[in-house]
Amino acid sequence: MKKLACLALLFAGAAHAAPIPFETYIKLHNGMLEAEVVSMVGAPDYSSDSNQGQLTGGRVTTVSTTRQLSWLANGQIPYTTIVTLRDGVVVDIKRDKKL
């Protein structure tokens, strides 16, 4: 049981993504596909989705999807990066210094 708990802690620690180094951050740009971003910088710490719909004939149809991917700061790289995608394409890139 103790070994199982240690393995769970090991995998939980490995689940956190690394922050994006400046050398990689400057390569990100609007118009990139989500797959390009993830292959360049790795999986994000968090992601959130939202759909924008339209009501037609009593049914709601999805018009577009917006997704935000976040890579959190750590002790070595004090910047959190948030990439916003619309329909799978980068439309905004924001980088904030952790205080």
Automatic annotation (TrEMBL):
Keywords per UniProt: Signal
- How far does the signal peptide extend, from start to end residue? 1-17
Give the protein's recorded name: DUF2845 domain-containing protein
Q: Which organism is it from?
A: Chromobacterium indicum
